[in-house]
Amino acid sequence: MLSRVAENLYWLGRYIVRAENTARLISVHSHLLLDLPRGMTLGWSPLIDILGANEAFVERFGGDGALSEANVVRFLITDTENRSSVAASIAAAREILRIVRDSTPRDAWEHLNATHLFLQERGERHLPRAQRQTGLDRVIDTMLMMRGILGANMSHDVGYQFMRIGMNIEQADMTTRIVDVRTVDLIQSRSSDELQPFQHIQWMSVLRSLTALQAYRRHEKIRVSGPAVLRFLLQDRGFPRSVLYGLNAVSYALPRLPAYRGSERSIDRVRALIQDANFERLLERGLHEWIDEIQIGIGAIHEALTLSYFKPGEPPPPAQGSGVQTQTMTA
Asked: What's the rounded Cα separation, in Å, for the pair 104 and 91?
């Protein structure tokens, strides 16, 4: 398989998962308004933080004064200048499907193209809160349908493995981003004492953002709490949106590819950090710094795959901080 075809299939998987997760984030964030009491406001800046698109938003709309619901929703759904928006992710996936149409089912193109045209023609009409959920539901349903069509009708050869790897890396990355930002400053109130009674709402919002609330209740059988939610979303081996599940899925796919050892070492380092974590202690002393290490590790997995398969022979990039994963997010 040509390296450019492998890279296209890898990014196809990433863009499908990115569009779905972004749509879910906006949907859950909008519904959270109904759960909060009067006197507490819902900030929209965390959605920009989750996608690592702060600089792009400032360039597009200006400073903090522009962080209104209307601007953020437009930026994340229909703004094609934001390369992490729903519309931009679907457009990029559509272009990849056009390029690799010989390797993917025709049904996938038809469904994705229909949603792409829907966002182009009627996306702006579905930005106001009254119509927003209808448009987001269509995006989510299409992305889930894409997963089903590609998984059921595409030969599970090397190309499929690259796409599967892309899906799981993107999901692991999105899960860490959602946990990192949503557990810090999702709800804005006048004082920390005022916020304390509603901590469970915040943790339930984290679960809902990943469609994990029902699975959490079935698996944990305890009240929603910070440490238990973190264990489920980061360490659970059976839930497809958990970080450890995604890393294991990538590890299972790698043996079907040639010369995969470099990528396996990067995965092992991140898995060790997650498996050894004490979440009660991390919540007290610094969850953000620990998640930053996980995100850097996921970025290193992406770089290892890129150097091994997509751009072989290139020298490795210089060491970076958390910006590695921001660059991955906006690719």
From this structure: 16
